[in-house]
């Protein structure tokens, strides 16, 4: 069972409510998001694009913009080298579009996931040299490419890095970190220790957006053209699972509004093929509908296809490419489901599910799916997970972590095992020779320092609140806290002694429960549950008996009374709006 924790952070909620024109309960929720200063709260509630940090605050930003400005005026050939995931694709699009607006001679290269691997490699450097490229600008990669950038310098090319990943380091005898900064003419990455940029948690596409903003200012180009690029910064922020706090929250809030009326023909086609052209978009639609389509092309085909979609000016071509991306994603879903099944089977039959760090080797699995499968296994077992597959040379792995485990630092302690690795706290990618997989499993588990408490799911309850207080006005007020996502979860409430009167199972896969419940004052509510229905039914049977479970679904009188944590929502059907309680957990 999950561990429920009621958040009890203190503040003068009535004063905050009066000052910011909100209810004391919403003031309490905001305080639970660790906002203390009134400037933070005002920015959270009412922040605008004017509140974004100036790009010039980022180390090497001005220097890099000046260098590129000179290259544009000298009519030098510039090549962007991006990445094949949603962040890399959006960053590449932002840089290329922005540079074209500024008058640059620019093209791009996206590494092929299987043949090139992640980020810069010598093949891409050599190809750029043979193509007469003067300047390479990386995006969403480059911070770990010291050798490759050194080679580019030897060939006489200029390299600028724009990235957001952790800076590689080695540890001295006293445990101090010695950071390894690549020898590029400008290294623009907010995670550098000496970078004064106020907010470090931005994605690669936002770094690219800031660079173009700075460049446009330097070149006297109208910065209103940035509005179109904001859409892609927002898509990447959600797709790369950045926290929706501080300026990320503003970028996503305004970016979602821009996407609804986008002028980009390809993006419009992608919305249409997924049935989203007339919907109010939320981070959910980016993270679970549009984002996977963009990622699928880099996994199973080439990410350049996604850039073709955004670049096309022909609606007919856009419709074809968008349809292809959706079909690729549908295929990816089936392949992922099979991979997850194989991973679970391996963990259960080997006993490795008891390890503190899970390591699974699936040689036949398509290597592009390793990260998704790792995420699903982490969700099931609540443990850091690495999935390895056979690559062109040795094996490739992707890792997904939990809050208590800094994955990149764990890998950095054993870098002698890898031919290549990179990432951050919550995710990583790596390559090693195949006979090192078992050694890797041993090393990761030997010094993980994780305890059973680290694996227990924790549900943080904002306010213990009877469901009857969740009226339409309150639910509408909660929309002030949107967009919800990583770092800014939907508020969670809880109530004891909820009597379950009846229930039915819905959905094509019979995986949604809908119930009628009653509180102690005999107020009735509709409750919907998207969690594990089998686990819920097993719990009911265990606590109240199999007969009571049958009574629940047969509409007979029951004795089933539970505490639930929930958030209130509005269900709209045929123009009618009804309050719906979404159950998150039960005890």
Number of helices: 21
- The mean pLDDT is 92
> What is the spatial order of strands in the main beta sheet?
3-2-4-5-8
Structural class: alpha/beta
Contiguous runs where pLDDT drops below 50 for at least 5 residues = none
Q: Quick one: how many beta strands?
A: 20
The profile of the biggest β sheet is: 5 strands, parallel
| Morphology | globular
Helix proportion of residues, in percent? 40-55%
CATH class of the domain at 55-224: Alpha Beta
Supply the CATH architecture of the domain at 55-224. Answer: Alpha-Beta Complex
Radius of gyration computed on alpha carbons: 25 Å
Oligomer: single chain
CATH topology-level fold name of the domain at 55-224: inorganic pyrophosphatase (n-terminal core)
Distance between the termini: 8 Å
Sheet-strand content, in percent, reads 15-25%
Outline the fold blueprint.
Blueprint: E1 3-6, H1 13-20, H2 24-32, H3 38-46, H4 61-73, E2 77-81, H5 86-101, E3 105-109, H6 122-130, E4 135-139, H7 146-154, E5 158-162, E6 169-171, E7 177-179, E8 186-188, H8 204-219, H9 226-239, H10 246-260, H11 265-273, H12 283-300, H13 304-311, H14 315-350, E9 358-361, H15 370-381, E10 385-390, E11 395-400, H16 407-412, E12 420-423, E13 427-432, H17 437-446, H18 452-455, E14 458-461, E15 463-464, H19 472-478, E16 493-506, E17 512-518, E18 524-529, H20 533-544, H21 546-554, E19 561-573, E20 576-586
Parallel strand pairs: 1-14, 2-3, 2-4, 4-5, 5-8, 9-10, 15-16, 18-20
Antiparallel strand pairs: 6-7, 10-11, 11-13, 12-13, 16-17, 16-19, 17-18, 19-20
Helix pairs in contact: 1-2, 4-8, 5-8, 5-9, 5-13, 6-7, 8-9, 9-10, 9-12, 11-14, 12-14, 13-14, 14-15, 20-21
């Amino acid at each position: 069972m999950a561990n429920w924790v009621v958040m009890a952070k203190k503040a003068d909620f009535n004063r905050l409510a009066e000052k910011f024109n909100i209810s004391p309960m919403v003031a309490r929720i905001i305080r639970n998001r660790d906002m203390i200063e009134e400037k933070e709260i005002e920015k959270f509630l009412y922040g605008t694009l004017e509140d974004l940090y100036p790009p010039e605050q980022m180390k090497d930003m001005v220097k890099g913009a000046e260098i590129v400005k000179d290259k544009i005026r000298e009519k030098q050939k510039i090549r962007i080298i991006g990445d094949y995931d949603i962040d890399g694709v959006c960053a590449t699009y932002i840089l290329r579009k922005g540079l074209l607006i500024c008058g640059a001679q620019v093209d791009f290269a996206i590494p092929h996931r299987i043949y090139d691997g992640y980020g810069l490699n010598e093949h891409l450097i050599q190809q750029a040299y043979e193509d007469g490229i003067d300047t390479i600008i990386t995006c969403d990669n480059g911070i770990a490419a010291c050798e490759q950038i050194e080679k580019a310098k030897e060939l006489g090319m200029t390299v600028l890095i724009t990235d957001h990943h952790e800076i590689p380091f080695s540890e001295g005898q006293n445990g101090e970190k010695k950071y390894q900064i690549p020898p590029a003419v400008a290294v623009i990455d907010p995670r550098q220790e000496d970078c004064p940029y106020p907010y470090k948690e931005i994605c690669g596409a936002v770094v690219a957006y800031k660079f173009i903003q700075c460049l446009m200012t330097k070149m006297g180009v109208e910065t209103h053209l940035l509005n179109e690029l904001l859409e892609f910064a927002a898509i990447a922020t959600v797709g790369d699972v950045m926290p929706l706090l501080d300026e990320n929250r503003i970028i996503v809030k305004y970016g979602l509004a821009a996407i609804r009326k986008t002028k980009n023909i390809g993006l419009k086609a992608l919305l249409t093929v997924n049935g989203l052209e007339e919907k109010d978009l939320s981070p959910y639609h980016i993270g679970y509908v549009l984002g996977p389509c963009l990622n699928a092309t880099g996994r199973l085909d080439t990410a350049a296809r996604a850039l073709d979609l955004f670049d096309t000016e022909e609606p007919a071509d856009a419709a074809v490419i968008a349809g292809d991306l959706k079909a690729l994603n549908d295929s990816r879903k089936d392949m992922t489901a099979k991979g997850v099944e194989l991973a679970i089977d391996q963990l259960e039959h080997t006993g490795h599910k008891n390890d503190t760090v899970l390591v699974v080797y699936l040689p036949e699995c398509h290597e592009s799916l390793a990260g998704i499968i790792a995420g699903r296994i982490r969700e099931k077992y609540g443990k850091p997970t690495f999935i390895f597959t056979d690559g062109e040379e040795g094996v490739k792995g992707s890792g997904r972590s939990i809050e208590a485990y800094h994955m990149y630092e764990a890998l950095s302690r054993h870098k002698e095992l890898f031919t290549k690795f990179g990432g951050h706290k919550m995710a990583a990618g790596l390559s090693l020779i195949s006979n090192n997989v078992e050694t890797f499993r041993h090393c990761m588990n030997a010094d993980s320092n994780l305890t059973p408490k680290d694996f227990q799911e924790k549900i943080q309850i904002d306010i213990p609140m009877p469901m009857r207080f969740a009226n339409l006005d309150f639910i509408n007020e909660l929309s002030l806290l949107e967009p919800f996502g990583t770092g800014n979860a939907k508020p969670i409430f809880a109530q004891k002694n909820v009597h379950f009167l009846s229930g039915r199972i819905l959905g094509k896969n019979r995986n949604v429960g809908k119930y009628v419940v009653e509180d102690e004052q005999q107020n009735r509510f509709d409750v919907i549950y998207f969690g594990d229905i089998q686990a819920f039914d097993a719990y009911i049977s265990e606590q109240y008996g199999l007969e009571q479970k049958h009574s629940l679904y047969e509409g007979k009188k029951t004795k089933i009374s539970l505490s639930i944590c929930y958030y209130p929502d509005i269900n709209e059907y045929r123009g009618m709006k009804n309050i719906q309680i979404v159950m998150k957990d039960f005890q």
